[in-house]
Amino acid sequence: MNRKNILIIMLIVWWGMCAAAQTHLFVAANGDDTGNGLNWENAKQTVQGALAIANSNTVIHVKVGVYDLATEFTVPNGVTVIGGYATASAGTDITQRNYPGTNSNWSNASKVTILDGGYTHRVATVSSGGRLEGCILRHGKTSGNGAGVLIDGGTVTHCVLLNNLAYNNADTTQAKGGGAYVQNNGQLLNCVVSYNRADNGFGVAGTTGDVVNNTITQGMRTFLRIDAGTVGSLVVDNNTFWNLNFVDNTNNAGLVAIQTAPAEMSLKDNLVLSMGEKAKLGGDNAATPGFDGFKYWHGFGSTGNWYFSVSGTFFNTAFTSAGFTELAADPCYNAAAGQFNLTNSDLVANKVGASKWWTPYVEEPEDLTLGTVTGNHTWNFGNAKYFSGTIKKEMVRDLLYINASGDNPITVNGG
User: Fold this and answer.
1) Structure confidence by residue, pLDDT tens digits, 61-72
2) CA–CA distance, 52 with 31 (Å, rounded to integer)
């Protein structure tokens, strides 16, 4: 082998080693963007600060806390942003994190990573090859599509999309996907999408991509709108839907609102719960009169779906109950209180709905001590676990004494 060939081989090996070397950057709310970001001691203060020095093979680890974003950020190709690190000692060990979907208190900055748009801009865009994981995206606002996140070919997983707003009544091609807009084969996976709004409907919208294994609740209008134009393959499988479509809107009628037929669509192994009188599985959109929903619907793969407590008008002649099985009782521990852990063994065996609910509900341990309460204190009597839905067992504590005094007054507000 001559020297030239040896040199070429050495260069190839060196290039491969450089390409394989992964950069780890760290972000903490008490960090400093002037730091190098290479460890928790020198963590950046903002996600944008870390992105500014990221290369095409970078993982950005974000500590728990609230991050008030001055601007939207974009996760580019080759970059992963992972939230939920509770302590610096967790290092880069992704098993030592808090997934926000497992916490009932999504506003607790000591447990979750909260990325807050302040209702001034979209929270994030995730480009093709980018990945956003383990964060809460809240208070995003845009006149475009995807207020919480625009998934432009990238992947968003194990996140919570909460209280985001897409607004633009003047332009019906915009303001879609209050929580997320999925395009260019993007992926929304293993997420919770709740309390999002868009002027032109839906908490999630898009053209091409996968919406799989999510829990989607409390949407004001249609969950998924398929826009007019060329639409590729859409996969909507293994999701848990609860209490959607509680605003009547002709143009956004249905769990799925279709303006044009996708090339392919899968709607399989979903669990649909508590859909009220204004909710439908699907319907013709007023923007496209004469749309033959029956023809398109029965070209889709719709199998293995189950439903409980839906209105009598949820299914219709265009969007029939084909591929859906009715349940006689709540299949969850307490769906009305947001506890979707399945108690129906058939659904668990058939892997229906989001996988996070296939395990039994485990009650939080009760503190039986009678400690002294001093100073100001707030009891949340609106906690849905105890004060809404069907209470599965008696939740009464005997001998709970609260002593009031001039230094420790008790004030009761709101009834």
Assistant:
1) 999 999 999 999
2) 15
